Structures are given as structure tokens and as C-alpha cells.
Amino acid sequence: MTDFIVDPLVDFCVDVIGEIGYLGIFLLMLVESANIPMPSEATMLFAGFQVEEGTLTLLGITVAGVLGNVVGSWAGYAIGYYGRTGILEKYPIFHVSPKQMERVESWFERYGGATVFFTRMLPIVRTFISTPAGAAHMNLGKFTLYTAAGCIPWVLLLGFIGVKVGENWEEWRDKLHYFDYPVLAGLIALAVYAFVKWRRGRGDGGAETAPATEA
User: How many domains, in total, are found in the chain?
Assistant: First the structure.
């Protein structure tokens, strides 16, 4: 259904890695981690295939991929950090109140490390987690540490699979996309829950502020 979008991106990843190797992996993973959807599965699986072909090394592609993810995550972090007041709290479409931001800050203060670490290993979510971390003003050093720690297993696993499956890497890339669906379903369910809770909150607020009438 999305092949007309994904296939050109995959071809682009293949061309970039084929032309500039490790630098290409670094740049592609940087883009993917900077809130710009880029198929990291295709990037690292093809990179693994290149290891199997003998043109790259598993250590090299892992380092390039992780470094790219970390640097790209700083961009996403900066968007949340500096855009918090100007975007999230200013425009009604986002409806993020100061009180809600306090809750986000409290969450990241208590569970920020674990949140960043584990979401870095989840499809879809891993691309965007940097922005809420930045909006919550999570410590940058801590954010960087847990981002790198979470990216290592994801990048290494994809590269290793690419090495093992060799020229069948594209077939595995298609298989891995099945893991996107439960994650996407969970995100939709969470969004619906948040919307319903928001609507109920507005309804309760309206009831509380309604003027009383005397008999």
C-alpha cells in the first residue's frame, strides 16, 4: 500500500551507501533520527549485505549507524527544547498546557532514561522520541547516553541480519515491516485515549464554570 513511497526511499538508501559507504550510513541514520521518516531497516540491512560482500565491516556500519542516530537525535531534541514555548504551548491545535508540560517533565525526570532507551528499539516511535525529551528539558548528557545505548542493539541487530541473509535483505526488510503494525495500533489507541480524556476534561471544566442560577 505504501510501496510507492517506501521503494524510492529504499533505492535512495542503496545508492547512497553504494556511493559513499560509511558516510552514507551515518547521513541516512542521522536523517532518520531527526524526525524525518527514513527506513533504517533498509539502511542497515543493506549495509549488512555489504559486510557479507566484503566491502564494509560489521563494526564499521554499527558505529556509523549509531553515531548518525545520536547526532540526528540532537536535532529532534532541539526542536522540542526550543520549540516548546513557541509551538506546543502557544498554538491551540496542540493544546499543551503548562500543567501538562509539568507532567511530561515529571515523567522524564523519573523515567526519561528508560523511556529513551527502550523506545529507541521500537519502530516508528524511535524516530520521534527525541522531541518530547527535548520539550521536557531532559538533561542532554543523559539523553545522549541513553540514546546511544538504545541505538546500539537496534543498529547491530539489523546489520547482523543483513550479514546473515545476504542478497535476500530486501525480503527481510518487507518482513520486518510487520512489526510496525502493532506499534502503530498502540500509538493510535494511545492517541484516541488522550483525545477522549481531553474531551472529558473540557466537559468537566465547562460544567464547573457554568454560572449558577437562583430559584
Answer: 1
| pLDDT 10s digits, 119-162 | 998 877 788 889 889 989 999 999 999 999 999 999 999 999 88
For residue 17, give the C-alpha cell.
551507501
Query: How far apart are the two ends of the chain, measured CA to CA in Å?
Result: 62
Torsion sign over Cα 37, 43, 44, 45: positive
Q: Residues with Cβ < 8 Å from 204, sequence gap 6 or more?
A: none
**What are the angstrom distances between the C-alpha of 142 and each of 30, 62, 99?**
19, 21, 24
What is the DSSP track for 60-115? HHHHHHHHHHHHHHHHHHHHHHHHIIIIITT-TTT---HHHHHHHHHHHHHHHHHH
Torsion on CA atoms 170, 118, 160, 50, rounded to nearest 10: 60
How high is the mean pLDDT of the chain?
78
pTM value is 0.74
**Closest Cα partner for 134 from 81, 74, 75?**
81
* Structural domain containing residue 60: 3-204
DSSP 160-196: HHHHHHGGGHHHHHHHHGGGHHHHHHHHHHHHHHHHH
Q: Is residue 191 part of a domain?
A: yes
